[in-house]
């Protein structure tokens, strides 16, 4: 909860193949041409774009070279199953650690930028 308070104040982009409209304030829905739409948004300014909970979309964005950095949240739970975040990576991706942030709930944020 403590690391998500900022969320209600930002513009959200929802990636969905089925949802066409949202009655949510500050929300844009992308249902097709993901790479083109994200490139368009990136060209509009210097604001950060964060992707939450979409391994398929993240994999596409990684493959297209559209991710500039990662905020990885390490949770104090070990899972035996799940969809890996990093899969089918063509080339090595060099990351530089920018910051870390431990939270009282046990979660630790690792903030990396992609080099080159």
Automatic annotation (TrEMBL):
Which Gene Ontology BP terms does the record give? Answer: riboflavin biosynthetic process
Has keyword Iron-sulfur? no
Q: Which UniProt keywords apply?
A: Oxidoreductase
The Bacterial bifunctional deaminase-reductase C-terminal domain extends over 8-107
Note the InterPro entries from the entry.
Answer: DHFR-like_dom_sf, RibDG_C
Gene3D superfamilies xref list: Dihydrofolate Reductase, subunit A
- Catalytic activity, EC: 1.5.1.3
The highest taxon in the source lineage is: Bacteria
Q: Which GO terms describe its molecular function?
A: 5-amino-6-(5-phosphoribosylamino)uracil reductase activity; dihydrofolate reductase activity
A Pfam match: RibD_C
Which protein are we looking at?
Answer: Dihydrofolate reductase
Organism the protein comes from:
Cytophaga hutchinsonii (strain ATCC 33406 / DSM 1761 / CIP 103989 / NBRC 15051 / NCIMB 9469 / D465)
Please name the gene that encodes this protein. Answer: folA
């Amino acid at each position: 909860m403590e690391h998500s308070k900022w969320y209600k104040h930002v513009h959200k982009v929802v990636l969905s193949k089925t949802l066409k409209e949202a009655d949510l304030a500050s929300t844009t829905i992308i249902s097709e041409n993901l790479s083109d739409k994200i490139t368009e948004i990136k060209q509009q300014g210097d604001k950060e774009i964060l992707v939450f909970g979409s391994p398929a979309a993240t994999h596409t964005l990684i493959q297209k070279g559209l991710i500039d950095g990662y905020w990885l949240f390490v949770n104090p739970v070990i899972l035996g199953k799940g969809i890996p975040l990093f899969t089918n990576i063509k080339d090595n991706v060099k990351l530089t650690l920018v910051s870390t942030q431990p939270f009282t709930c046990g979660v630790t944020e690792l903030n990396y930028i992609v080099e080159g």
